[in-house]
Design a protein that fits this description.
This protein is an alpha/beta fold. The protein has a domain of about 170 residues: Rossmann fold, CATH 3.40.50. It contains 7 helices and 10 strands. Strands 5-9-8-6-10 form a 5-stranded mixed beta barrel, surrounded by 4 helices. Strand 2 and strand 3 form a beta hairpin. The relative contact order is 0.23.
Amino acid sequence: MTLAIVSAMREELSALRAALDGTRAETVAGREFVHGRLAGHAVVLVLSGIGKVAAAATAALLIDRLGARALLFTGVAGGLGAGVRVGDVVVAQELLQHDLDASPLFPRWEVPLKGRSRFPTGPGLSAALLAACDEVLATPPPGLAALGLHAPRRHKGLVVSGDRFVSSSAESAALRAALPDALAVEMEGAAMAQVCADFGCPIAVVRTVSDRADDSAHVDFGRFVAEVAAAYSRDIVLGALQRGLRAA
């Protein structure tokens, strides 16, 4: 099985890229796909770019053109759920596009002609990520404490995606009211999940919470990604691979 590991931004993927063995790169549709091995597993790493269209296009290329048999998206997200704090990690169990509304023709959030609004992640992939999260968060990277963050926790459940950077208290409160079980908000995961469903390809999404998607003061974002989120991504993905990451 070739596992595709995807992030939206270069900084999010940097630590995994540095850990890759035997790299070979090819460029397709303006994206650099880097092939290699992690923990003995064949993988391909790629930056999707930001937003749902970029993510969906990348997913289709990975599956149809490059032969990926499972996708894993890793990066940062804004926390929504109660108790989801900066420095925590969220593993998606379901993904939904919070800005999709084709009503009155279809119910709000439902993907037209698909009969569904929520797309599940691969249970085998997610289980391996959850186990790896527990191990990694037991000894978090030093950069976490240096930023004044302590006792990180992992969460599992609904992650929502939309083509809007949610950064105000009013927006995050509206999302919590409409989707009370949403744990985190980002801009790519649900679009990739819809494409994966079309192809019958399992997907997993693991996100480090970098902010609370509101007006509150945030940690230094660049430093947080470099010292915490990128290290989380590397260690969690490697831990999952070492546990025999399965697509089913």
